[in-house]
Amino acid sequence: NEDAKALYVGNLHPYVNEAVLQDIFSTLGTVSEVRIVKDRATGNSAGSAFVKFEDHQAAAIALKTINGRILYNKEVRIQWAFQKEKTENTASHSHIFVGNLSGDVADPVLLQAFQHLGECSDARVMWDHSTGRSKGFGFVSFRTKEAAEKALAEMDGAQVGQWKIRCGWAHHKTEAVTGLDIDTVDRADPANTNVYVGNLPTEVMEEDLRAAFGAYGEITGLKPCHKGGYGFVTYRDHSAAVQAIVGMNGKELKGKMVKCSWGR
Q: What pTM was computed for the model?
């Protein structure tokens, strides 16, 4: 894919900063962006980065030349940030939604996390191409429904990258059960981080909402309305709200199937 210009750089020593990477990679071509992935809790390097070149050829040379080099006594691992192409048609495969992805998880990392389960045909992280940053969720495809079900059972809550992920049915499964698809939900105002939760049981408390919705991202506000049977969950990030709407719509909470949409 001649459009591929971004590299995922992993296994970095904490001493490696953006200036160091800029110096190293710019010897092979014009670098348009270098971004160290930060640990959300500490603000320090998470040991990985993304490097984007102006052209594909320079990125390809960097991948071949620098991958495996020793930097501060650590062997640098480099992969394409995005999979170059699908190896097979996955239209008829079973797909799962993977949410709460940390910023250091690129396509190859997501694929590697699920490959051991068998029958994994594709893995894609969704990216905001205007910023070059992950939207915090992605999709993994399996050749059989049984393999996808196994992935849901074993990987929901597993650690991938820095955070524990959330898994659920996606694409045709999501649309059939909940009437929602990720692309439609994501078209909302990017400034909106407020999720409306309907059909709530009257006994649901703030701690119940936090337990159910907290895995999708950092929550900044909770407001259950017991008399009305609804509530609101506000996130710090728009992408977390997108994940929560798609992931929680149609899920059971204290015996009732909740309905999620954008709040105001």
A: 0.59
113 CB-near residues (< 8 Å, 6+ apart): 105, 123, 155, 158, 160
What is the rounded distance in angstroms from the CA atom of residue 8 to the CA atom of residue 25? 12
What is the mean predicted confidence (pLDDT) over 221-250? 88
Q: What is the pairing mode between strands 94-99 and 133-142?
A: antiparallel
* pLDDT digit string, tens, across residues 209-222: 998 898 788 899 99
Check residue 180 and give its pLDDT. Answer: 59
The structural domains of the chain, ordered by start, are 6-80 (3.30.70.330), 94-170 (3.30.70.330), 186-262 (3.30.70.330)
Q: Are 24 and 13 in contact (CB under 8 A)?
A: no
In Å, what is the CA distance from 25 to each residue of 79, 104, 132? 14, 19, 18
